[in-house]
Design a protein that fits this description.
The complex is a heterodimer of chains A (about 130) and B (about 250). Chain A has about 130 residues and is an all-alpha fold. Chain A contains 5 helices and no strands. In chain A, helix 1 packs across helix 2 and helix 1 crosses helix 3. Chain A starts with a helix and ends with a helix. With about 250 residues, chain B is mainly α. Chain B has 13 helices and no strands. The longest helix of chain B is centred in the last third of the chain and has 36 residues. Chain B starts with a helix and ends with a helix. The interface between A and B is large, with 72 and 113 residues.
Chain lengths: ~130, ~250
């Protein structure tokens, strides 16, 4: 667990350093994620320590958002002035995003599946039937 | 000298990081207990309940956000390693991801575009201020990345974080109903849609419902974060050039 958490922090540091040095327009943790991903792909199995730390952290992901959410206190005036626009935009946009993502993904998976099925039929029709 | 003992203790605790940290964890545990007792009904989202509870406690005790955040920052800080940790489910699911590369890329592109355009367009139509619009743009991206994007394009990072958390809570709460109405039964698709629209909070919800949905939500949440971090500043720069060139 501790070894795993250490690795996550090391990769975050590497990501931050890479972003600063190369002036990349990406947040440091995202660069760290990509570096760790490359590292993991170079190995045959995911090291147990990293797996434990990552799973533990991702299992309790929700609680990590609480301090940022309490930040609503700082913007009470702005939100009071514009709450109708903000809430309508967030609710409508979130519903549309879920729907668009799901519908597009279902359609593309269906197309891929039927293309594979057609390919399968074509392959089987090559074979003599009797 | 003559201050009441309780006030003394409160002033002492409020001066240390212990209070904000403990309050965050206790509020979340309590909120999670309520969520479990409510049969994990999505409307009883634990992040929402915990935030309401903490805001009420801070308001009643006259404690400022800075004081609270001195302690809560230790929890907030872990968002960074959590983003790095997304490499693990991504590496674990890589064979699936490669096989579904086209559906995943198409769904991510469509979802990200709809999230950005519909939020900014709707808020702009309803008369929101430019700062609000720029803070609202990355709302479907996880809080730490949304804060980074907002900062780059001229929004307020702290406001962007609040919008991202609100979006996550709403997505986690409404996702089930939207997906049921569309008759989406594939757990991979249900999870992916929640991850794109409602980042980490939607992912936490997806993991609670089904492990396969959770893995795909984590994947979507990581991919959307990486994609938006790269694409949004570019989209903004292009849009800004276009609008500033054609409007007085």
């Amino acid at each position: 667990m501790l070894a795993g958490l250490t690795w996550l922090l090391v990769f975050q540091c590497l990501g931050e350093a890479l972003v600063r040095v190369l002036g990349l327009p990406v947040p440091g943790p995202v660069a760290g994620m990509l570096l760790l991903f490359i590292g993991l792909r170079l190995r045959t199995a995911i090291p147990a320590g990293i797996n434990t730390a990552a799973t533990g952290l991702l299992q309790h992901l929700s609680v990590l958002f609480v301090p940022a959410g309490v930040g609503v206190m700082l913007h009470v005036d702005r939100i009071a002035d514009e709450w109708a626009a903000i809430m309508t935009a967030i609710v409508v946009s979130t519903v549309l995003t879920i729907a668009a993502t799901a519908v597009v993904m279902r359609a593309l998976i269906g197309r891929q599946a039927s293309a594979a099925a057609d390919g399968g039929d074509a392959a089987s029709s090559d074979q003599p039937t009797d | 000298m003559h201050a009441a003992p309780f006030t003394d203790i409160w002033v002492y605790l409020a001066g240390t990081p212990l209070l904000g940290l403990t309050l965050t964890l206790v509020a979340y545990q309590g909120a999670y207990w309520v969520y479990a007792r409510a049969g994990f009904r999505p409307l009883f989202n634990p992040v929402l309940l915990a935030v309401i509870f903490i805001v009420v406690v801070l308001a009643l005790t006259g404690t400022g956000y800075r004081t609270y955040f001195d302690g809560a920052q230790f929890v907030h800080f872990l968002l960074g390693p959590a983003v790095v940790a997304l490499a693990v489910p991504l590496a674990r699911e890589w064979e699936n991801v490669k096989r579904l590369a086209v559906p995943i890329t198409g769904a991510l592109g469509a979802g990200s575009l709809v999230a950005l355009v519909s939020a900014v367009g709707m808020a702009w139509t309803l008369g929101a201020s430019p700062t609000t619009l720029l803070s609202l743009a990355p709302k479907s991206v996880t809080a730490p990345i949304a804060m980074g994007i907002a900062e780059k394009i001229g929004g307020l990072p702290a406001l962007a974080a609040v919008f991202a958390v609100t979006t996550g809570v709403i997505g986690a709460a409404l996702g089930k109903y939207v997906l049921d109405a569309l008759r989406i039964s594939d757990w991979r698709v249900r999870g992916f849609a929640l991850g794109v629209a409602a980042h980490g909070i939607g992912t936490a919800r997806a993991f609670q419902v089904n492990p396969e949905a959770g893995a795909f939500a984590g994947l979507a949440f990581g991919l959307h974060g990486a994609f938006a971090a790269l694409a949004f500043p570019v989209v903004y720069a292009v849009a800004w050039r276009y609008w500033s060139g054609f409007t007085p």
